[in-house]
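[step 3/7] fold_predict: job queued, chain A
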Amino acid sequence: AVNLLRSFGPANVPRLTKTQIDPAVLAFSFGISLLTGIIFGLFPALQVSGNTSADQLKQAGRGSQSAGHKRMSSALVIGEIAISLTLLASAGLLLKSFWKLIHVSPGFQTDHVITAQLSLNPPAYDSNNRQKRARFWQQFEERISALPGVEAVGATSVLPLSGRNDDLFHIPGRTYGPGQFDDSEYRQVTPGYLSAMRIPLLRGRWMGEQDGPDSPGVVVVNQAFVRRYFPNTNVIGQRLQLMGDQQQTREIIGVVGNITQIALNQPEEPEMYVPYAQFSVPMMSVIVRAAADPTNLATALQAQASAVDKDITLSGVKTMDDVLDASVSQPRFSSQLIGGFAALAMLLAAIGLYGVVAYSVSQRTNEIGIRMALGATRVDVIRLVLRYGAGLALIGTALGFVASLAATRILSSMLFEVSPNDPETFLAVALLLMAVVLGASYIPARRAAKVDPMVALRYE
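[step 4/7] structure written:
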């Protein structure tokens, strides 16, 4: 189980790969299991030792278990069913949340895209030599574009779904208090980024080769930026003043669609894109869209980078599908983990109910034989036994619903577009649990229906 946990757990769980069996935890688990066996074996032992020989002979003659023992067994099964429903409801909510999450459109196309990080380190590419940085990326992208099977190539300072990268700005003509600024997600990109990611251009134009280091400053924003800062206004031609920018102001030249920059479960954020040639940074991620399997280009990308500058190496080579998959690894792990515990709890509840019903049937063999001798059919016997199992299941389910309503509120922060009290999930897990426990009751019920009345009457 530990090896399985390591294999499907997300990479962002600290020290998951070093997870192993801890001797102290193992000893505690062994001790608590042994103690449980002793305690739950002690209760019936005390009950038996407290009865006189005459009482025991009377109970044996009646062929039935004591009322206290029956109540204790039923209570344990009811508790198992209630706990199972609570875990199943939690797992169901997480699975439904995860299903909705993976079907969220990120605003760009991840298929057939490979990416890698590339750093232009000083002193050769220091902050005072931005034109050299821009020339490197221009030559690098031209070489990649010439490779067979490449459809588009671009670069960005921060990959989508890789976290937050804010920047502050002012809108000229608006009044700000001391220390007040507007803020937005911020990316430096090359001209090919839009087509490589297939982000829709909604208004204006995208940046091009004409937006070089010596050209007037420009910026492209997304729909969320327009809604927040320029509602009911023609945003094309408006100007922004970015913090730390060498340009005095930048003109908004275009509006693009919203994409998911932080995480799929996060709301759409205002975003700004500026030309890399006008505001370069040392670390960038190249993005290449291929006509077929993009992983075949990994070696070629390193070769083209070395051809421009032999000291440049690539790192973090991966597909955008891998980036998207990694962004949902944590909710997937939570769903799988709780789902596994829920399945185990349901199995335990089924075994417990089977044991109690089977024992009850064995104690009622004489009664069943009398019923069949008086005309009861096999269907009547099966119905009789199932009614007992169904009664325990209904009580356990009712208690489980109450416990689930309280427990699932804890999951609110982990859910995406799913209510903690989602009626569809609760109904589905309740029906599933009822089907399992009734199946567990059916086996001894079917066995009871095959009892020969003459044999049953001589059972004691």
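[step 5/7] annotate
DSSP finds 14 helices and eleven strands in the chain.
The chain has a mean pLDDT of 84.
exit 0
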